[in-house]
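Table S2 (text version). Query chain:
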Amino acid sequence: QVQLVESGGGLVQAGGSLRLTCAASETVFSVIGMGWYRQAPGKQRDMVAIITAGGVTNYADSLKGRVTISRDNSKSTVYLQMSNLKPEDTAVYYCKFVTTGGVSWGQGTHVTVSS
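Corresponding structure-token output:
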């Protein structure tokens, strides 16, 4: 498994923006897909956005138009640009890499959106 480190979370006011970064500790090969998920207190972990090795993206309906997932394969890094944030976006955000060798998760980064 690959070690993933998320960064970029924090406290932001409603309507604000954040950019989350997830970097692998080593060059990752044979990537099938990368993604961002989030888990609010007392709730299950849900998909936010995913991007396949071919560059196909998919977004949660509640976040379409407000988030963009992108990647830098040369750096084995995936990003999540979030805008027009709402209090209900408050959660721990996790990144995930899926490779032919298995699945890796980051430790999570907290995002808090104040009203």
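Notes on Table S2: The chain has a mean pLDDT of 96. Residues 36 and 95 are 4 Å apart (CA to CA).
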